[in-house]
Amino acid sequence: MDRSGLHDTGGSADGDMALHQEQTVDSSILREVCGMFVTGVTVITSGREDTADGTTVNSFTSVSLDPPMVLFCLHRDSRLRPVIHDTGAYVVNFLAGPQERLARAFAGRASAAVQAEATRPSLTGVPVLSQALAFLSCQLVDELEGGDHVIFLARVVELGVLRRNQDPLIFFRGSLGALADEPLVSTPIWDG
After folding, report:
1. What is the pTM of this model?
2. Which of 21, 82, 84, 155 has most Cβ atoms within 10 angstroms of its Cβ?
3. Superfamily of domain 37-174
């Protein structure tokens, strides 16, 4: 392992041994390495009417198609955690490339107000951001402790695509941005 904390994955026997030894992981290096994984950007909304709140996250993933389940992770001290817990539901709002301003507005501790955005109620009563690329309305199934984060596992009860002709907003190497202006190749990815 070099000074950066990254492993040399060359074919040497010593390099292979280092991969199997438990190491202390530097959180800043972990953030840098995980930043090499491109993710979409979402605003999670929860609450109803005056209690509605939202925050920007990129830790969303699909879990199961049958039953339809998804999850996302949220820092355990997040202002949105008690809102989700009390509401028992949340909406995943997928953002489009031109919505960087919206993502940044919901990213800070002094977040944008959901009430100031154009919304419509989902089946659960949680607001859907009307300008989102797509959304998933979810009923909370479980909250799991995950270190300094909480994992919110939920069943999808409503979904929709609101903007078919826009590219998503993405997060890569600590920066927000739209996809490059290159033709998209429609190659299926098979889940093995």
Report:
1. 0.76
2. 84
3. Electron Transport, Fmn-binding Protein; Chain A (2.30.110.10)
